[in-house]
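Record WavE lipopolysaccharide synthesis family protein, 323 aa.
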Amino acid sequence: MVIEFKDISVVVQGPVQAYHGRAQETGITHKCLQSIREHLPGATIILSTWAGQNCEGLEPDLLLLNEDPGPTISSYDAQGKPGYLNFNRQLVSSAAGLREVKTPYAVKLRSDNFLTSSDFVRAQQAYPQRCLADSLFQERVVVNTSYFRRYCDGQKVVMLPSDFFHFGRTMDLLAIWDIPLFKDLPFDEERRGHPQHRGAPNTCPHAEQIYCNTWLQQLSADVPYLEHRHHATPEMLEYWDRFMASNFVVLEPQQIGLGLIDRFIPRSKRPNEISHLDWLLFYKKYCDSSYPASNVELFYSIGWRRLLKMPLSHLKHRLKQGK
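=>
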């Protein structure tokens, strides 16, 4: 099946100018919208941002000025000082935009990213085999490898996909982003003097893990609560690999046609991130045993660096934790 650009809406979400705690490259949202017009002619553009943002010169097909929910208290240090994350800001702007989509397919794109091609449209249909028992989405969702972590602190982790870019069926993207807003973490007076966060005293999950665990639990009753960042039993690791194999297409930014601002571009591929070659091996193992994915190619591209760096990262983490 060929997906036509007119059947795609692009939800550009987030701020269009800098605000406290969030730097923004000047003119990046203008560049983002122009890139969509260039590479997806005929697609609908929905800009979902905040009331009070200066949107002069931006010309989306639909502009949503959402009420800013503000940051969410997600932790307290030993002195009781709160720590904040933008959980609800991303949820509000993403979900509000996706709810307005009228086309069968949608893209969720950060307002500080842009497109360099439309290659992701073809890639979404390029891996037709799926394991029915593992398929929770109607169709595959294309995701980006940047900040999609396979390892944290030298240990394999689960449920940590990148939130930069999603492309797939609109209903599948809504399943990811239209989830309940997070409440501020209440302060526990009995734990004063100790850090407080999800999973304490273990390391708190990354924000992307908390998002992912939430929407996965809404899709399936079999998904366990992720207790902390490194909560990854053998069963959970296999579940996550199987889920990725049948529900995602994991691509490098250049394979998607995703442009990143300078601060997101590493000098070389980060060994703790998943790679497209990793994902191809999952696809071969769980979906299509005839697919020509290669462990040798993975080793020579990034596997050897993992063998060197992951044990050192794990040791550094253990020393930091005093274990």
